[in-house]
Amino acid sequence: MEKQESIFINRELSWLDFDSRVLALAKDKNVPLGERLKFAAIFGSNMDEFFMVRVGSLYDQTLLKNNKPDIVTHMTAAEQIAAITPRVAELQAKCDKYFQTLVNQLTTAGYKKVDFHHLSKAQEHFWKTYFQRELMPLLSPQIVDSRHPFPFLSNKEIYYIAQLYNKGDGVSFGIVPVNSRFERVLFVKDGDMTCFAFVEELVAHYAASIFNTSTVQKQCLFRVTRNADITVDEGMMDHDIDFRDVMSELLKKRRKLAAVRLQFWPEAPQEIVKFLRDKLVVPASRCYAQTSPLDTGCLFKLAGRIASDGGRSEMFYPAARPMQAPAGYDLYTEVRKHDVLLAYPYQSIRPFIRMLLRAGADPDVVSIKMTLYRMASDSQIVNALIAAAENGKEVVAMVELRARFDEQNNIDWSKQLQDAGCTVLYGFDDYKVHSKLTLITSRVDGKYRYLTQIGTGNYNEKTSELYTDLSFITTRQDIGEEASAVFNNMALQRLTSEADTMLVAPLRFKTVLLDEMDRQIALALQGKPASIILKNNSINDPQIIDKISQASCAGVRVDMIVRGICCVRAGVPGRTENVHIRSLVGRYLEHSRIYCFGSGENMRIYIASGDFLTRNTERRVEVGVRVDDPAIAKKLRGILDLQLRDTVNAREMQPDGSYSKVKPAEGQPPVDSQMAMFGYFKDGFEMAADKPAPAVRPAVKKAVAKPVSRQSSSLRPTRSGLWQNLFGRGKK
């Protein structure tokens, strides 16, 4: 019997495919030059995170005696690392090539990169003087020999290293940190040209003079990437310890975890590579030489300088700011007349913030409850909660301290919330709370009334201008009662297992969506119209992938819009022939999750905080909602239809798992779904002063709590990395 072709793609390789799609925008001639710099920077940031999180996790797994293979592709951790390394080398080579093209085009635009190997006498004098006066006093060189130990090297910092020879002591090594205290990009005007230099290259050019008593034989720059896959399990052995203190200690530990990658600029001498490999225990396969900057974050600074110079509008995307609500628009009042959908970044988040402030000052409001995962460093939203608490309201904040790379920010905010009199909860021991849920409870005429907000994105004003997200706000009592039960369950470390309209992972999320797929399969088998549209960030859950395959085999058309990791292959004969997968990577980070089943009057559509990764479906508390309001449901479907027509940002998966850029049909104009959404939501702040309030639906079954089992459970989490956001912290 002929072996059936697999429909599964390895998660790590899929992640790298996504990074490849990001990198492709750094060479896309249709993208303005300044924006292409940013995409190159984003690629580098993504690769840093990939090594810290995913490769770090795989490295940990290789140290375990019982190293279980990947549940999707059955590859061991060692096999996955072996598959990753050549792919990373391939992408790095592309990045180097694209960077050189960007440098050449910047020169044409009036911004020339300083080449320290070809300086005129005047330039040599200027930069040497600058080095001696501005940098030399701040440098902290170290010698490594038999009398001086190898120093600790910080994660993601750049270092200069030289192999030294001294007649009396023989061979030693000198290391000079080029740390974050230095301005990464230096600018000098030279007539009409603006010259820019990367500070680490300047240090590398003159650092030999630091070791004037020795002969510098060989030298280069390098950068270390360390594992960031920390776990709270060992820190929670003593339950009398405050969880914030546990997380603070773990953050200190993260800085000292094992090195997982070495980057060198330019080609590094083998003696230096061997020396660092031996000291840091990094295999040769994870040592990468490159000609692009070791830390591409400097390209953000370069793009920022060009933008601040002015008069370079052609080098950047046209200005597009979130639409503000019209004068007199009051979301707090409006939502009592009809359900509301806000779409970021097309609409401003300000009406939501004003709604929180109104609630905090409303004498009828009893309590405000909110889940907080990633917040801005100067969060107006958290300040609104603090103001409400200081105004005498009960404020309950479920703060997830384990939001990767935002732990310290969340620790700091949790302290401020607690100091203001808010009740701060940290969620579950075994499940991250990734929900985006707000509940405002009022008491009017002796009866409790609920205002509920359910979103796909974080309560973060900064990312609301960069990520496409949805926020559904309603005063429907049935949804409010379910949300109230969810908050009560979370406070008592219990999982929600029953609700009518809401999705609540891990017990009532995947099962509901699988049931919805089964309904479409049944319709297709009866010869009736059936369709499924799934939009999210990532998918690797085997059960969901198997169900998608079943739907395809039954004749259901399945359209998937998956921005990042996608572990299912489209178009596999006899398995996924009716599955069509596309990825949208463009100006904004596609972050919203919409799940649509059927069409017309029988259509059922959901928004949610959770993707189809097993970490979301089985190891996190996620929240979603079925949107029954016909107008909003239609609007959500319109978003999906628009993105399925995109011919600017979209790439379609081919049967071999690769992606091809979607192009407009001959004679047809290009469709940029992201920019078209500004027009789609131009009347999004609907005001219905005369529209009656939504009818209260019949009472539904109360959400039932289920205690979290601490013994054997199929839902118990495993150690895994966390995909984070594309546009910096970010993150998800």
From TrEMBL:
Residues 331-491, 503-674 form the Polyphosphate kinase C-terminal domain. GO terms for molecular function: ATP binding; metal ion binding; polyphosphate kinase activity. Residues 123-302 form the Polyphosphate kinase middle domain. Residues 703-732 are annotated as: Disordered. Mg(2+) binds at residues 374, 404. The keyword tRNA-binding does not apply. GO terms for biological process: polyphosphate biosynthetic process. Its EC number is 2.7.4.1. Residues 709-723 have a biased composition (Polar residues). The active site is at 434 (phosphohistidine intermediate). It catalyses: [phosphate](n) + ATP = [phosphate](n+1) + ADP. Its cofactor is Mg(2+). Keywords: ATP-binding, Kinase, Magnesium, Metal-binding, Nucleotide-binding, Phosphoprotein, Transferase. InterPro entries: PP_kinase, PP_kinase_C_1, PP_kinase_middle, PP_kinase_middle_dom_sf, PPK_C_dom2, PPK_N_dom, PPK_N_dom_sf. An intermediate of this reaction is the autophosphorylated ppk in which a phosphate is covalently linked to a histidine residue through a N-P bond. It comes from the Bacteria. One of its GO terms (cellular component) is polyphosphate kinase complex. It holds the Pfam family PP_kinase_C. Catalyzes the reversible transfer of the terminal phosphate of ATP to form a long-chain polyphosphate (polyP). Belongs to the polyphosphate kinase 1 (PPK1) family. This is Polyphosphate kinase. It comes from Candidatus Gemmiger excrementavium. The gene is ppk1.
